[in-house]
Structure formats: C-alpha cells, structure tokens
Amino acid sequence: MDNARAWLEKIHAFEFDRPVKIMNVCGGHERSITHAGMRGALPEWLELIPGPGCPVCVCPEEDVYQAIRLALVDKVILVAFGDMLRVPVNVKKGEVRSLVEAQAAGADVRPIASPLDARRIALENPDRPVVFFAAGFETTTAPTAAMLTEGIPDNLGILLSGRLTWPAVAMLLESSSPGFDALVAPGHVSTVMGPQEWNFVVDRHEIPTAVAGFRPESLLASFYSVLRQLKSGECFLDNCYREVAHPDGNPTARRMMGETLDVVDANWRGIGVIPNSGYALKPAFAQHDARLLFPDHADPDRRRAGEMPPGCDCARVVLGKIYPNQCRIYGKACTPRHPVGPCMVSDEGACRIWWAGGVRMAADG
Fold first, then answer.
1. Domain spanning 56-164+273-305 has what CATH number?
2. Which distant-in-sequence residues (6+ apart) come within 8 Å of 13 by Cβ?
3. pLDDT of residue 184
4. Per-residue DSSP letters for 322-340?
5. Which residues contact residue 79 at a Cβ distance below 8 angstroms, ignoring those fewer than 6 apart?
6. In Å, what is the CA distance from 306 to each residue of 63, 99, 121, 222, 270?
7. Looking at the predicted structure, is the pLDDT value of residue 365 above 80?
8. What proportion of the chain, given as a percentage, has pLDDT over 90?
9. What's the angle, vertex CA 86, arms to CA 215 and CA 111, rounded to 5?
10. Closest listed residue to residue 276, CA positions, set 285, 289, 263
C-alpha cells in the first residue's frame, strides 16, 4: 500500500489547467478502480473513463439468440461462461429472452469456467451434441484455441463469438471525437498478445499509453506514466505490468490461435461491424463449427433487433461516451437483479461494477 500512496502523491503533484481523461479499456481494471475507491482519491481534474473491455456487453444479440435456440429447439447441451447465461435479447413479451430462462424452460444449459469443462461434458455425454458458446476477448479465446489444437470430442461444437480488443479502440481513435487524452491498455490481453499490440495508439495517434495490471499500485503507476507523458509532450508505450506482460506476449498461445482461428469482420452489439475485430474457426475445424452443424437460427432480422433494449445506453457506456449512471434506466428499470442491458449483467460490465461499488442512483436522481 505504501507504493500506492507514493504513486498517489506523485499524481497529486501534477498541475493541469483542464480536465484530463484517461480511458481504461479493461473491465477488470474498472472493477479494481471502483472497488478500491480510486476516483475519490485522485485529483478532481482527472477523469477515469470505462472503455470497451466487456466481452459480454458487446456479444452480438444474434449470437445469444442462436445459443438460446440451439438449447431449446435442437436440444443440445449448451455450455457457456456464467455471465453469458443472463444476457437478455430483444424478443416479444413472454418469449425466452436469455439462456437462464431457456434453462428454466427445460433446456440443458450449463455454466462453465473453462473450455476444459466443455470438453469434459462432451466426453461424459458421448451420445448427445454439446455446444460451447465461446464468447470473449483474446484472453478467453486463447484457451479455446489450445483446446482445438489438442483435439476435442466429435460431439463438441463451438459457437464462437470471440473478439479482439484493439480494433474497438482503433475505431474510437479514428472517430471525430475519441473522448480521452490517454489510454491504459489491458493487462491480461497484453499477456497473451504482447504489449506491442498497443503501439499504434502512440505511433498513429500520439496518445500516451501504458499497460497496467490489476493491483492499485500498477494502475496508479500507469496513470502517473501517461500524465507525465502529457506534461512532457513525449508519447510512448509504457509497460507497468512487466512481471506478467512480456514482449510478444505468449508465443505458444498466439501460435495456437493462428493455427485454429481466422480474423474476420465482426458485429459488436449496439455498435455495429468493426473490421478485423472477430475470430472464426478455420475451415479445417468445420466439423466443430456450430454455425455449420446446426440450423442457423440467427435470422437476418436479429441484426436489426441487435441494438440495445429500449432506453438502454449500454453501447454508449462501452464506448466511453457516458458514465454508467448517466444511462437513462440505470438504477431504475435496470438493476443487477433485473438487468435490461448486458452492461448490468457481467462482472466486467461498467454498470454492474458501479452498482457493486455503491453507485445506486442515476446521475439525474
């Protein structure tokens, strides 16, 4: 804690005559910042903006809908990471709107913590089709690639909804108003892909950037680094998570991802298609691609319906355009017990994190 206090003192020693906005991309970072009460300890001129680091929040509605239909109609054993089970889709009143509701309706839906759980369940049920709804960023997509490389049971299909983190940040930076002065890049993603993946922020956009871990001292060190860069006018990529995020990341994980997955254009819920931002199984693994193995329940109308629910501003929260409690239904229609949008579902969703951190009222109330 002494290190954290020292970084805080250094940050408070800076003087800026305008607000400084730092975007933290990772949902894990936002959780650490909120639960440690960092915003209250930092100078008033410093704003920390949650960014697009919640894979559950951006998973396309058509993918969630297809997973629901696979479980209900095709009677597969549907397995997914726990957060995905409560993500709602836009359907008529009375229809099943989430995987947990499909489970209540009799579908065999099971939460898992690791791709190895999906493999185990398939081995234990050799006479039944099992589908792993694999949503996530690079950190959780890498273990899925490793499982494919090592070989999986014939009855295990994968409904892949993997996303890359950096293209969403690139999209923000290429827009007319990025909305932030500096970037704190995600530590876990950097352990897989390497910190150098974030060089483009500095090289193309001249925005100070630092990779951070999840302890207060690492995050505060990253804040200090980018503030010092802003003061000096010298932009560079700083690695404040060197004990874990090594140059070039994890070569084995990257090799396995390259052998099993293609990078494709991908839809982000409420945001739209971002070029080269998603993963798809390579043709060599077509026998395990749930999109090919089963009827396509994700009809084209789901893309139109794939916006956030009425009144939900989750997409604007994900893009750092507003704070969670500035959503029109935050703490009103939308709470963790009765989530309307995905940002209130996931432990990495900024709305859920702020609620857990004690922010229980909308900004206007």
1. 3.40.50.11740
2. none
3. 98
4. S-GGGSTTBTTTB-SSS-S
5. 109, 110, 111, 112, 117, 118, 121, 130, 131, 132, 133
6. 10, 16, 30, 36, 7
7. no
8. 89
9. 75
10. 263
Residues pairing with 212 in the sheet:
240
Specify the pTM: 0.93
Tokens encoding 81: 């990471």
Separation of alpha carbons 220 and 5, rounded Å = 9
Among 3.40.50.11750, 3.40.640.10, 3.40.462.10, 1.10.3720.10, what is the CATH number of 2-53+166-240? 3.40.50.11750
**Two structure tokens written together for 294:** 């089963």
Contacts with 358 (C-beta within 8 Å, 6 or more apart), sequence order: none
The encoded tokens of residue 247 equal 């140059």
Helix or strand run (H / E) with residue 277: strand 272-281
Domain ranges for the chain, please list them. Answer: 2-53+166-240, 56-164+273-305, 314-356
Angle between helices 251-260 and 138-150 (to 10 degrees): 70
Say if residues 210 and 154 touch (Cβ distance below 8 Å): no
pLDDT recorded at residue 295: 84
Residue 128 to residue 118: CA distance in whole angstroms: 13
* Whole-angstrom distance, CA of residue 104 vs CA of residue 68: 12
Counting Cβ atoms within 10 Å, is residue 248 exposed (0-12), middle (13-18) or buried (19+)?
exposed
The number of residues in the chain equals: 365
Tokens representing 146 are 């490793």
**Alpha helices for the chain (secondary structure H):** 2-12, 27-35, 38-41, 55-58, 61-72, 99-104, 115-124, 138-150, 166-174, 187-193, 199-205, 216-232, 251-260, 290-293, 301-305, 314-318, 350-356
**Bridge partner residues of 48 (DSSP):** 22
Crossing angle of the two packed helices 216-232 and 2-12, in degrees rounded to 10? 20
**In 135-267, alpha helices (H):** 138-150, 166-174, 187-193, 199-205, 216-232, 251-260
Residue 230 pLDDT class (50, 70, 90 cuts): very high
